[in-house]
Amino acid sequence: MSAGRCDICERKPMYGNNVPFSQHRTRRRFVLNVHRRRLEINGVQRTVNICTRCLRTMSKLPKVRK
């Protein structure tokens, strides 16, 4: 897997702090929920790393009827 990066939207992990009650900050990563899926892109079956937000958006988009 490519370090938690989405091939569709190009989002990547963000960085922030863990902040306990003592206010002692330590760095942490907010990693995307990325899955490997076989999708049809421009009529070609491809295996892509796709985040779950993109998967939800794709299921919401209206299907093209011919």
TrEMBL record:
Annotated coiled-coil segments of the chain: none
Example of a GO biological process term: translation
Gene3D superfamilies for this protein: Ribosomal protein L28/L24
A GO cellular component entry from the record: ribosome
Keywords assigned by UniProt, alphabetized: Ribonucleoprotein, Ribosomal protein
Gene Ontology MF: a single term: structural constituent of ribosome
SUPFAM superfamilies: L28p-like
Any matching Pfam family: Ribosomal_L28
Record-stated family: Belongs to the bacterial ribosomal protein bL28 family.
Protein name: Large ribosomal subunit protein bL28
Protein source organism: Ktedonosporobacter rubrisoli
